[in-house]
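thread: overnight batch results

M.L. [08:02]
morning all. the overnight job finished for the chain we discussed friday. pasting input first so we're all looking at the same thing
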Amino acid sequence: MTSPSIELRQLIPVVNQLFDMEQKLAHAGEAAHRLSRNIGRIRRYLKEMGLSYHSPLGEPYDETRTDCEATIVGESAENLRVTEVIKPLVRVEMNGLSHILQRAVVIVQSEKNKHSK
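M.L. [08:03]
and the structure it wrote out:
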């Protein structure tokens, strides 16, 4: 870590903003490609400090999953998948162990609901 005076939890808003920018750039044009290099560098700097983040978009979800706070859309709670990520899962690596600093905030939907529309 670079400075003991910085608590890693204080960087969570930075991670959330970085994630939001990545989401928006995914739908942008050529200028987005140039910006994505800068975002990649910031992501590497965070990684060097022990922070990483992950989008669980498209992953299966059930009520035993403890790394996400989910809102279920639709009537069925079977075969749930993450359809939208509002905030990413943020982890810190310390002493060879990974700890969750922020659970992902997600929207989940049954695959049955998606196909019946």
